[in-house]
TrEMBL record:
Protein name: Pyrimidine pathway regulatory protein 1
Native source organism of the sequence: Wickerhamiella sorbophila
Region (Disordered): 114-143
Gene Ontology biological process terms, A to Z: DNA-templated transcription; positive regulation of transcription by RNA polymerase II
Keywords: DNA-binding, Metal-binding, Nucleus, Transcription, Transcription regulation, Zinc
Transmembrane segments: none
Composition-biased stretches (Polar residues): 120-143
Subcellular location: Nucleus
Any Pfam family the entry gives: Zn_clus
Entry GO terms, CC: nucleus
Gene3D superfamilies: Zn(2)-C6 fungal-type DNA-binding domain (4.10.240.10)
Any GO molecular function: sequence-specific DNA binding
Amino acid sequence: MKDTGASPLVACQRCRQKKTRCDRGFPRCRPCEKFDEPCLTIEPWSGRVIPRSYLSRLEERVAELEMKLTEHKEVKTTTKPVPRPANSTSFLGASSGLTFARILGSIFREQVGSEEPHTRVSTNNLSTTPSAKSRTTVAQQASHIHLPEKAVAEEYLERYFNLSNTQMPILHREDFIQKYFEPVYGPISPGLNLGCTFTQPALQTSTAPPGPNTLYQRLSKVSSYRDLSTEDQTALYFLLQVFSIAVAGHMQLYPAYLPERLQFHAMTVYETAAKSEDGYEALQAVLLLALYSVMRPADPGIWYVIGTAMRMCVEMGIHNEDRRKRQVYVSSGEPANDALRLDMARRLFWCTYSLDRQICVYLGRPNGLGDEYIKVPYPSLIDDAYVLKAAEQHGTLPHATTGPSYKHISLAFFQLRYIQARVQHVLYDLAEVPRAYGSLEHWRSEMMRELDEWYRSIPTDERITNCQFNVGILSLNYHQTRLLLYGMSPAAPRPSPADMNMCADSGRQIIELYHRLYTEERLNYTWAAVHNLFFAGTSYLYVLHHSEDERRVTNSKSVQTLIDEALAVMTFLQKYTDSATPCLNSLRRLAEATVRLMVSESEKVELTEFYHTSDSDDPLSSGNDNKVYDFISQMQQSFIWEPFLANSEPAPPHPHDIDEKGQFLSM
């Protein structure tokens, strides 16, 4: 990039337009000062029109802010950028995903240095009441990292390994406990169910509290996280990020601020984990951040985080075992380590794939890596403890597909994301129908048959799943995929009567399942739940509005009850994500327009009052069917094609990702 430190003064915009001589005075030229006009000039390196005194004002503002900081004694010296080594020792190059992963940490640090969402964590636990204290610098805030007590930490682990790690097996249970939990808390307590209801984990257990040499005891004596070793910082990141995911996945059981607080502290040591020389450990760090971002709106946005993870997979070659020839990144050549690393490579790739496909469906964006480039089998289905034992004894991965294991749930989700990816590709990316099928309808019927086979094969018995996973979530995903397949799409904008019936059924099922999760206090997603509810609700109302047959067999009171259930869940989610409010209001208006066709005049008055809207120019208030159709179509497709996450602004490029001409390098 060109040096922007100094440039000659040029004639101002006004003098150029008036074709008068500009004396290039500062901060204003004489003609501009005479007519009391702003003296504007063009910034040569960006093309922006700015005041001539722009840089001078910035310098004055910086000096003013530094003086205020000094007066309030919040900082002792001017903050300096953290120096980056010229020759990185990381396993990835400057244009790789890991460079981008470092940017994610940098963006987070920039944001946490300006405003803190909640109060500092108390000295003893992570459940204090938030106050209005503002953020200080990251280094100061990091010095207040505190861990929950061992019993609370183990509660979080049970929740994580039974709900989250079953869907996304990012972590190998025994490996995680030995590398990250034991150095901090010591051996886990006996009797914990970490996704092993009917199996015995290969772990040492103890009821003793954390010993004096554990990080839990040493942390109170450390003034800043920078004083900790790399291993300690990495362990802190993994534990705190897992805790935040566990709490976010059970949002109705914990204070709303708690997962944000845990994740905030995890991010203070994120960069250390993301820079790990172990490629798989670095990828795990990024995937945990992505998993949290799916559950809660977070910065940076999920689209950029999962893109980083996919590029890391490609850089390490774990997306194509044929090309990689089973050569994995290991520090030891022992066969046992190779077998474990091979299983880890497979599970990490499929976790990345699953998250990528899920997000692409939500945001209507292209996949991060085409299926034609992927040549890697699913990970082993046997329980983590047996993977460890088999690798140690035989040096190879067993091929058993029976026996209790939480990874039966993982496999079900991997298979479903593969189906959803193909649906997205053909119906929403407008790709050609595969040649094996004669028409779009033939292809859709085959996809529906494959989806039904998947649904019939999913495990429901805990003696098979080996964990306390709510299998109702799989039913929810089935109906979401069914709706994606037969609802309005760019390839099929006008559903047939049979398609409408299927959409009405799946839309109703999705709302009922979400309301059941809400009443049972099992909601685990925020913005994604809003997306699913809105898509289901608008699809259901669309069918009722345009299908006389469906209206004939549907009771108006049942429609009101169903919409009330959807609105109740959205109302609850309003405090977690800004996207809930416009969706809730739109769904109310759509419901009002639809029930006009279904109720008598006396019922209409009652329902109009219930779904009252103050928008006098509401396109739905006229009762015009075409306007209702257009509105529903636009609303649905805007949520298919436009991301609505409040915090998904792109990260600024790292200097290494820009060439001399200011162009972005390929990543």
